Amino acid sequence: MTADVFIASAAHTLPLYTVAQLRALEADAARTLPPDTLMMRAGKATAAFIRQRGADCAAHRTWIAAGPGNNGGDALAAATELHQQGVSVEVCMPARVNAKDACHALDIARAAGVCITDTLPDQDVRKYQWAIDGLFGIGLTRPLDGIYAELARRLSRRTESGSPVLALDLPSGLNSDTGARVKNGSAVKATHTLTFIGVKAGLYTADGRDYAGEIWLAPLGLDVDDVDLEHSKHKLWLNAPDLFKLRLPARPHAAHKGDYGNVTVLGGHTGMMGAPMLAARAALFAGAGKVRVALMADAGPAYDPLYPELMLGNLHTFDASDVDVWVIGCGMGRDARARAACADALAQGAPTVIDADALNLIAQREDLAARVAQHPDAAVLTPHPLEAARLLRCDANAVQHDRLAAARALAAQYSGIVVLKGSGTVIAAPDGHLAVNPTGHAGLATGGSGDVLSGLIGALIAQRMPPFEAALAAVFLHGRAAE
Description:
- Helix content is about 35%, strand content about 15%.
- It has about 475 residues and is an alpha/beta fold.
- The chain is elongated.
- The mean pLDDT is about 95.
């Protein structure tokens, strides 16, 4: 049981943990377990992971970089396990470990005859079947420097060449809570990460997704992830279908289009009419009963020749009396006319998805921001990092430095649901609940993908999904479609 590992993927609903929470779990376990138990279990889990991936005892060679703390202790425990199982292991340990448990792991490794050196290997570490990053894990608060920065570069070059690199707990140089590189320093780019006890939020957002590779979890026998979703007080989750599937709209055979809501997309200034059309088509595909487009441009198309069931009209002649859900901002522009249209839509009081230019207008106008914060239904705001920075009166680097904190702050500021787009999109509710989304890839980094997401969210809300669950589902499915 203690060596069991499983992939921490989009198929699993998992709680995500901060460093503080993990330290508390470790302390609780230490009160009931013999000394060094968790470190030895981490070593067994790592050895099992390597052996299950083609280690031939006669020919297999594993190279391990071990740091001075408990992450280095985990690496040494793994080295001992592999060595005792007949795998050729070489450990590079530039400085002696200083943590108590790690010192014990070092004594055991030396007694077992593990090859340990304090010198760097040859530049090319591709001759080893596996390389392991056991430098710092979650404990690092300063940038990698000196020999450790060089080790990180060599491990990363190995990954970029297509050879496997396993990071223990967290790629060294990443912030466990935010996924950003520590003070913009270097970090290990791994092909796989075997994380211990609980899954770290930073593995799934910011730089984490590029540096962690394929993520696996070894609970080390603590069973902390056996969580009752319905009754859990945990507020940070990996987004997966279990979080929203019970709220997905039913489609009874006897239903009619009026049961699935009227979505109205407001936007499309001159030269930008494609944006609301993309949002409207997404709403149509996602099951909204009726979809209308209120175009800002004076001379817009009379209908969509590909999907003529969409109803197009000019804002001047538009009847807003039966709108169930607004999607506002797609290609809207930022002139006085756009500001007035945005204010009018918010004044209707219907559930509203706010994207693109509408977000920029809200950032510029305190009266519009106040209307969003006082909206009778929680509005859904879908900023990318630069739009989020404008709303928070900061810069995009500050948003990216701690994406979870930025999303949480926006949700509190606007009393709404926030979808902070980017690598590892963060979905935040005003009550503090957050989810990090694991689906999608860089193919979404193109014009129009955000418009599609807004239309998808709007359609799910129109079908009576609560806004938070609608955002969770839409972001997950949007990413899955890209994949």
